[in-house]
Amino acid sequence: xxxxxxxxxxxxxxxxxxxxxxxxxxxxxxxxxxxxxxxxxxxxxxxxxxxxxxxxxxxxxxxxxxxxxxxxxxxxxxxxxxxxxxxxxxxxxxx
Length: 95
Fold this sequence. Notes:
Number of strands: 0
Helix content: 25-40%
Oligomer: single chain
Order of helices and strands: HHH
Low-confidence stretches: none
Strand content: under 5%
Number of helices: 3
Radius of gyration: 28 Å
Distance between the termini: 62 Å
Mean pLDDT: 77
């Protein structure tokens, strides 16, 4: 079986020329029902990384309620078993 490498290369070039990517010129905007939350970089919009940060915010009641709901959900789903940690072991950290 004999292959003509030159013809394969030319047909590949023709296929690439025919398949030029087109990009839309349309400008994208967030939906108006999101309001300013999507356009204003505000420290209040950044999620806290610790419980202390969450409870020192103006909206701490919402964060506390969310934490309570999450713990209740985990308990209702029977996600874990509470056991004693052996003296020679350290607990694994988590966020």
